[in-house]
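Hey, I was hoping to borrow your eyes for a little while. I'm sending you its amino acid sequence along with the backbone structure tokens. Take your time with it, there's no hurry, and the full record follows here.
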Amino acid sequence: VLINSGNANACNGSQGMETAVAASAVLARELDIDEKLVQVASTGVIGKPLSLKPFEEAVPRLARSLSAEGFDDAARAMMTTDTVPKTSGRRIEIDGVDVSLFGLAKGSGMIMPDMATMLCFIVTDAQIVFQELQAVLRRCVDLTFNRITVDGDTSTNDMVLALANGAAGNTWIDEENPGGREIFEAAVLHICRDLALQIVADGEGATKLVTIRVIGARDDEGAMTAAQTIANSALVKTAFFGQDANWGRIMAALGRSDCLLDPEKVAIFFDDVQMVKDGAGLGDAAEEACTAVLRKDSFTVTVDLQDGLGTAEVYTCDLSLDYVRINADYRS
């Protein structure tokens, strides 16, 4: 995997594709492998031509310095507006054999399902057939990276890549080994969720990590629509930043979502403190208690529609003054 940061190499036409192919060839020659085995990943400014020269100069040195201890360096090197590197590991046992998994990711802004401006790479020494690895990864991404939002903006570049070398020598994880697959998938899900939450917590200018949980919808699809609309509302997110339990903004977001609901049934909680019952606020004392919840770095907003069994969770953050500052002069 060849990663560059600072230039997305997107919207550069045939020149951009030629540079990507040429960069992969540089690494393939250095490692003496087929070019088809090189996966390139770029992140940064869109529409800026990418020069091949930095790859030609850096790749030989990078190839010589490859190390099993180099993941933290890679996680830091691919940061853009991230303030911290993001890594997560897991060790499991499959049929009596130790198996290791490790993931690294970058992402801080322009984050909204599906994924958006984020990169994630998961490596493992598990023996697992391709079809199972692909299926596991898709399910885990859908439950994690596809349920986060920082600012509601998508981008041109994103990727989640899983690599398995089979060195652990465990019994093959395939359709005939459902027990092994279940253990492995739980570990991948743990890593994906951990990294996804790290991305949201490190959202551009973010001061709070917020879980939006919608329950009691008529179906899961409606619950997800409602949760995403709330999580992406600029008014809701600025209220989180201001530590203002402005539940009317949550109701307004619900109303403009495509989720079918009866507003007179809605209940809203900040953590376990109820603010709204049957669509009406519970008064100043409840609002004061909810404001105390909003002072925390991490909390959950639960919206109960009391209309069915549909549920969904989306992870978001607040929208602060620093978000504007970061993005007002991103290219300068």
Q: What stands out?
A: Residues 36 and 324 are 41 Å apart (CA to CA). The mean pLDDT is 94. DSSP finds ten helices and twelve strands in the chain. The chain has three domains: 1-66, 68-204, 209-328.
